[in-house]
Design brief:
Length: 156
């Protein structure tokens, strides 16, 4: 068995795993899905239901339709960065929703021609993809020169 971390792990921090692939469901839905396995989850998210359920609802809303607008600029990009910060706090770096949000943000900064932020988020994107074993396809996001050759660079 090989384990790869999508983020830094604190010394002594408990490492948990996702049994269900339903990270964005509500706490109640997750607990119901776990019932047949004979245990209830006591991870940080499940213990903080009031906050995490509301946040997960926002992530799903974004995932299901509130993609960044065509221009991927201004308030949309700012909101996307805000969502990413919350998802990071919630430890959702393994969620496909986190990966697609990170890709949208990186492309948003690429569209603006913002080298510093495109590289900053592009490197994070590459790091989480490395953790899933798909780093090679995202290597281009670790270099400004490579990103400048991408169709998203300074696109309208
Ligand atoms: Zn849990």
């Amino acid at each position: 068995m090989k384990l790869r971390a999508a983020r830094a792990i604190e010394k002594g921090e408990e490492i948990t795993c996702d049994y269900l692939g339903e990270l964005l469901n509500t706490t109640e839905q997750r607990q119901q899905s776990l019932a047949p396995y004979g245990f209830s989850c006591s991870c940080k998210a499940c213990l903080n239901q009031g906050v995490t359920d509301a946040r997960r609802k926002k992530y799903l809303t974004w995932q299901l339709g509130k993609r960044l607008s065509k221009s991927r600029r201004g308030a949309d990009l700012e909101y996307a960065v805000h969502l990413l910060r919350e998802m990071t706090e919630d430890g959702l770096q393994v969620s496909p929703c986190y990966h697609s949000l990170l890709l949208e943000i990186t492309r948003g900064y690429m569209a603006l021609g913002d080298e510093e932020n495109a590289l900053r988020f592009g490197q994070r994107l590459h790091a989480v993809k490395v953790a899933t074993g798909k780093g090679k396809a995202f290597k281009q996001y670790t270099s400004v020169e490579a990103m400048k050759k991408n169709e998203y660079w300074k696109s309208k």
